[in-house]
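Hi support team,

I've been running sequence recovery on a batch of backbones for a student project. Most finish fine, but this one hangs at about 90% for roughly twenty minutes before it completes. I'm not sure whether the input is malformed or the queue is just slow. I've pasted the structure tokens below so you can try to reproduce it. Let me know if you need the job ID as well.

Thanks,
M.K.
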């Protein structure tokens, strides 16, 4: 009977120790959970960092914090984390770099600088092997209209005898294989010449007059925009039997007040 009472007393004491141990473990676990929750929040994490406390394992202890960007942290990363990152990169592949879409080239940028204006000027003519200047100068004007489909060139020349010649040519800009050349034909389709205009951006046009019957180039020249887009200089060479003959030098200025008369004679 005495032995039984002593045994019961010992069991009660052991039970009390177990309960106290469980309560202590529960308190430590709660402390860890609270500390981890604080560390996860921006405000709480900053407070713990200021105190130099970091949560490790099951219990909390005061240890110096090592910044994630420091060399020691980078060197002590767990190997499995690096392996996992390498496997993810191998599976997903490198992130594709987005390249900007190419900007399409503008159609007829030089002719657009000329189009919509009237250009008035004088022509100096020279001929012979020594290119002797002629004793006269011709007056003239030209206008250009350009849209997404058609190009129209309206040219007016006043001869030394006072007579006026007007030539109206047009062409479809979609009939050529590139975006820098246009072929113009007389509107009445009676003229013997076709005009080819090719662009050399940002300020030059190349000009060929081609004889329809033979396909020979009878005039070759260039037109250049100068003086900040306010003037045009055109130099052309007449070609006969494959050799240059006379030379035409036009100097024109922008003059939108110049009027084309409906009475001007068409060539």
């Amino acid at each position: 009977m005495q032995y039984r009472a002593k045994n019961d007393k010992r069991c009660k004491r052991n039970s009390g120790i177990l309960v106290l141990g469980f309560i202590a473990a529960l308190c430590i676990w709660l402390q860890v959970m609270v500390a981890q929750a604080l560390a996860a929040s921006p405000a709480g994490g900053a407070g713990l960092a200021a105190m130099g406390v970091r949560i490790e394992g099951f219990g909390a202890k005061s240890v110096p914090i090592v910044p994630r960007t420091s060399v020691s942290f980078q060197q002590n990363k767990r190997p499995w984390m690096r392996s996992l990152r390498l496997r993810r990169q191998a599976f997903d592949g490198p992130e594709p770099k987005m390249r900007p879409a190419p900007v399409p080239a503008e159609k007829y940028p030089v002719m657009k600088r000329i189009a919509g204006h009237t250009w008035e000027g004088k022509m100096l003519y020279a001929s012979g092997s020594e290119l002797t200047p002629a004793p006269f100068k011709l007056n003239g004007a030209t206008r250009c209209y350009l849209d997404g489909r058609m190009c129209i060139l309206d040219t007016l020349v006043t001869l030394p005898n006072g007579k006026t010649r007007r030539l109206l040519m047009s062409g479809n800009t979609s009939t050529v294989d590139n975006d820098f050349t246009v072929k113009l034909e007389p509107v009445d389709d009676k003229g013997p010449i076709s005009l080819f205009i090719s662009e050399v951006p940002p300020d030059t046009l190349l000009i060929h007059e081609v004889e329809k019957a033979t396909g020979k180039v009878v005039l070759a020249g260039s037109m250049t925009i100068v003086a900040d887009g306010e003037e045009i200089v055109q130099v052309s060479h007449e070609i006969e039997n494959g050799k240059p003959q006379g030379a035409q030098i036009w100097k024109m200025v922008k003059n939108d007040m110049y009027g084309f008369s409906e009475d001007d004679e068409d060539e």
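--
Follow-up from support: It reproduced on our side and the slowdown came from queue contention, not your input. Confidence is low (pLDDT under 50) at residues 1-5, 50-66. No action needed from you.
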